[in-house]
Amino acid sequence: MFTGIVEELGEVTAVETLDDACRFRLRGPVVTEGAKHGDSIAVNGVCLTVVEHEGDEFTADVMAETLNRSSLGALTVGSRVNLERPMALGARLGGHIVQGHVDGTGELLERKPSDNWELVKISLPADLTRYVVEKGSITVDGISLTVVDAGPDYFTVSLIPTTLALTTLGLKQPGDPVNLEVDVVAKYVERLLGTRGAAQ
Questions:
Q1: pLDDT at 196 over 70
Q2: 67-78 burial code (b ≥16 CB/10 A, e <16)
Q3: Where are the beta strands (DSSP E) in 30-136?
Q4: Angle at the Cα of 76 (from 183 to 110), degrees rounded to 5?
Q5: What is the DSSP string of 144-190?
Q6: What is the dihedral sign for C-alpha 75, 72, 46, 182?
Q7: 8 A C-beta contact, residue 139 and residue 94
Q8: Which of 75, 93, 73, 74 is CA-nearest to residue 84?
Q9: Would you call 14 helix, strand, or coil by DSSP?
Q10: In the predicted model, what is the mean pLDDT of residues 79-103?
Q11: How many angstroms separate the CA atoms of 52 and 164, rounded?
């Protein structure tokens, strides 16, 4: 379980392509402190398992399913990534409940800078639109954000200077893919209401 509060901007240092998977080596001095084999670390919002840990780097295997459903397949050596360790039991929930299970990918469509913030427009897959509401929560590349406007096939978010400086959203340009995870509460409510309706 994560919160969507990115701890550091890491970097991909190696990519090994396997038959139906990839092994990434990533640098992140903060998230690797005390890390061990089997720990979870969110990389651009995708929960990955630490395979090896040495110094300030760790490796993680990414299966074909994850590569197909996320933007991790587009990462190359030198790519910057958002990193977050799981939330500790009893810690403050600074963002919202994030599972690290990407629901789909969007595309950054437009950036509108202002003096103190920036409005970013992102495309939204049709099967996710029902979960995205104005002023609701959404996770973009592992970042917990508040939806400003929810359109039929897009949404917008406002980014403060800290988010622009310390996450990948400060670097992304129109056309770049982003990982999306909708609010899990909305999915559970939909499933429960659907089950109740079927039972009546």
A1: no
A2: bebbbbbebeee
A3: 40-43, 46-54, 57-63, 80-84, 104-113, 118-123
A4: 50
A5: EEEEEEE-SSEEEEEE-HHHHHHSGGGT--TT-EEEEEE-HHHHHHH
A6: positive
A7: no
A8: 93
A9: strand
A10: 84
A11: 30
CB 149 within 8 A of CB 155: yes
> What are the CA-CA distances from residue 193 to residues 11, 19, 134, 189, 198 (Å)?
42, 41, 21, 6, 9
DSSP type of residue 130: G
User: 62: which 2 tokens?
Assistant: 């990414």
SS3 label, residue 198: helix
Tokens read off for 18 = 């396997």
Question: Residue 55 is encoded by which pair of tokens?
Answer: 């110094």
At residue 184, does pLDDT exceed 90?
no
Half-sphere exposure of 94 (CA within 13 A, CB side): 13
Residue with tokens 């990434």: 24
CB 131 within 8 A of CB 168: no
Q: Which of 66, 62, 65, 80 is nearest to 24 (CA)?
A: 62
Q: State mean pLDDT over 111-123.
A: 93
- How far is Cα 70 from Cα 57, in angstroms, rounded to an integer? 22
Q: Is 178 left (phi over 0), alpha (psi -120 to 50) or beta?
A: beta
